[in-house]
TrEMBL record:
GO terms for molecular function: DNA-binding transcription factor activity. This is HTH marR-type domain-containing protein. PANTHER family: BIFUNCTIONAL UDP-N-ACETYLGLUCOSAMINE 2-EPIMERASE_N-ACETYLMANNOSAMINE KINASE, ROK (REPRESSOR, ORF, KINASE) FAMILY. Belongs to the ROK (NagC/XylR) family. Residues 8-41 form the HTH marR-type domain.
Length: 384
């Protein structure tokens, strides 16, 4: 299944070569997967040397998966088929991720998407992935909320709540790591075996790719770029963190102070002539953010020999490209003696990366041979 999902279609002989199976073993397995409805036969290919071959391909209706993203500003849900094609999606914005209403909204979205499937298709849903920030309860002040307003997240049984209402296996992922996974599976920006992935969300986050696999570390800290210290410590104070200087919530505050709707600006939907003012505010924010982020990037490159740095997020494409350009220039200004160059490039998925990754990872866990590596590295935490 993994080989076919990677290539699109193969004949039985090609499947045997691709997987290292004997021709007989490949044929037996393919026939069983055809019976199970996971694969389909395509029209015979004629006109080549030898006998006509019959390509085998994944059946788009052979399996489905749900993804939910719980964020600081919105909840999103998406239903995809075996090929990763979107079959339905929903998004609800809010001012703050208060635990009970946020979980209720997310569950309603997931249940609503499942209702679009026939009973037969519903039985083919392999799982539900939930992408959300780690320690979401710790960021009340940054979101302008009262202290302890988000404490309900500490003991919330998120996986259990989703499992009870949907009857599906539920797996919880860090949101930025899920975005990185989406870029690896469905995007085209990560082309090397090692990459530092940066996601510009309400709070900045990241992912680490090593040896072609998403790596989360023994304690799940790999890619937690928002926790990088910034600047010198003042008298009696600790250094700040990157999350306080390179996150989009700071840009949103500046836009609001200027009387500009942040959601419209971040979706490139400004129609009242305020585009130039929004551009100027963005440029000022990006200048400060890139100055701090570039230091974090160079520090990361000195620890792990990343081949590339990929930047994505829920910025409009034009702003994301300008940010990437600016970050690349800021990295170039550092003294990088002893370090190999690593290009800074824009991601290819954008705002949907986190929820798409959440939906794709259950499919990958079901049909990819490296699932054990993902689980062993802490990428997935099975909750039921």
């Amino acid at each position: 299944m993994h080989a076919l999902l990677q290539t699109g279609m193969l004949s039985k002989a090609e499947i045997a070569r691709e997987t290292g199976l004997s021709g007989q073993a490949a044929s037996v397995i393919v026939n069983r997967l055809l019976e199970d409805g996971l694969l389909v036969k395509l029209d015979k290919v004629r006109g080549q040397v030898g006998q006509p071959s019959t390509p085998i391909a994944p059946n788009p209706e052979g399996a489905y998966s749900l993804g939910v993203k719980i964020g600081r500003r919105s909840v999103e849900a998406i239903l995809i088929n075996l090929l990763g094609e979107e079959l339905g999606a929903s998004r609800v914005r809010y001012d703050a991720p208060l635990p009970e209403p946020t979980i209720s909204t997310a569950i309603a979205q997931a249940v609503g998407l499942l209702a679009h499937l026939s009973p037969a298709a519903r039985s083919r849903v392999v799982g539900l992935g939930v992408a959300m920030p780690d320690e979401i309860h710790a960021w009340s002040a940054e979101l302008g909320l009262a202290p302890r307003a988000l404490d309900g997240w500490r003991d919330a049984d998120i996986g259990g709540a989703f499992a009870r209402e949907t009857g599906l296996p539920v797996t919880l992922y860090n949101d930025a790591a899920a975005a990185c996974a989406a870029e690896m599976i469905a995007g085209h920006a990560i082309t090397s075996r090692s990459a530092l992935y940066i996601y510009l969300g309400t709070f900045i986050g990241g992912g680490v790719v090593i040896d072609g696999r998403l790596y989360r570390g023994e304690q799940g800290n790999a890619g937690a770029i928002g926790s990088m210290p910034t600047g010198p410590a003042g008298p009696g104070n600790s250094p700040g963190q990157l999350i306080h200087s390179a996150s989009i919530f700071l840009l949103e505050r500046e836009l609001e102070a200027a009387g500009i709707d942040p959601s419209a600006a971040l979706s490139a939907a400004l129609a009242d002539g305020s585009g130039e003012r929004a551009d100027a505010i963005f440029d000022a924010w990006a200048e400060t953010a890139c100055a701090e982020l570039s230091r974090a990037v160079v520090s990361a490159l000195s620890v792990i020999d990343f081949q590339e740095v990929v930047v994505d997020g829920f910025l409009p494409p034009s702003w994301r490209d300008r940010f990437t350009h600016r970050l690349s220039a800021a990295v170039e200004r550092f003294n990088r003696s002893g370090l190999k160059a690593a290009p800074v490039i824009a991601g290819s998925i954008g705002p949907m990366a986190r929820v798409l990754g959440a939906a794709m990872l259950p499919l990958k866990a079901r049909f990819s041979p490296d699932t054990d590596l993902l689980i062993r590295s802490g990428m997935a935490r099975d909750l039921i």
